[in-house]
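Why show two proteins at once? Because comparison is the fastest way to build intuition. When a single record is shown, students tend to memorize it. When two are placed side by side, the eye starts asking what differs. So, the first record is below.
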Amino acid sequence: MTDSIRVLVVDDDFRVAGLHRGIADRPGFTVLDSAGSIAAARAAIRDHRPDLILVDAYLPDGDGIDLVRSVDLDAIVLSAANDAATVRRALRAGALSYLVKPFESRALGDLLDRYARYRNLVGSDGALGQEELDRALSILHGGEAPSLSRSATEQLILEALDAEGASASEVAERSGVSRATAQRHLAALASRGIIDVRLRYGSTGRPEHRYLRR
């Protein structure tokens, strides 16, 4: 997936909505104007068709979880409600995850980064193997915890590599970053011995660098 992920924040507190929009305003994401009610959210969904909604459970004119259930969109519920029944109801409605307010900015930022990696794996219309599906779900739910010494972009690039290797252009396409960004991070990872670099010689021209995850 190379297109920017369009995010709609649905929260009736404009200060909270602004905070969440600020966190979501990161590379690979486009943040839409926030919606403060169910009605405004439905209008924004109709007009702008976001890829992901970040929605409060309780809104002035209805239930955010019912909104999640009624729209064919990825959703994450952000709510002060911490009772198990509400969390179960949100997950049954189709929410990909649930964060209890108040939470640290990093918690939402990390979740959005994991969502981008998950979407990169499942975003096509092709068939998914079980191993690929398990990997995507593990990433989304934090089963593959990123190293504290690595950036989110490095983690994304590492996920784009496999045992057969890939060129910088292929890594850029798979991870949704520019070729220059991919090349820079690949070189840094190779210099630290985290990945291997091999040359593939064609019939003509310069050899191609292939990057392999160890």
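Second record. Ask yourself what differs from the first in the token line.
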Amino acid sequence: MKNKFKILGLMCMALLAISVFTISCSKDDDPADNDFFIGTYNGDISYQGDGQTITDDDGKLTVVKVGSSYSFKFGSGIPDINNVKFEKKDDNTYVSIGSGVTGITITASTLKMLVSNDDGTWTADCSR
């Protein structure tokens, strides 16, 4: 009889451990905590400033995290945008905040940008 109680106790402990593990690895994890929008997006990109205009209908734009801010690394000779902060707009959509960098909306699959400041004007309509 003691052995049956030991086995029953071990089975209950195993079930409890599996339950705790399953709950802690839930799919309700907020993607922003995982920097889900870091990576490369492709699409229309452009820049106008310093007396030049650059457009690329098949451009590449890479989002990287540097500390607590983000940088946008453009292909096609377009200058980068650095030190951008974001706030959550709704489920999995983030918008840029801060002086001179407003106008960026980003999700896991799309990036839309219209940023205009003293350094120029950047546009992007990209996806991945």
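One difference worth noting in the second protein: The helical segments are 2-24.
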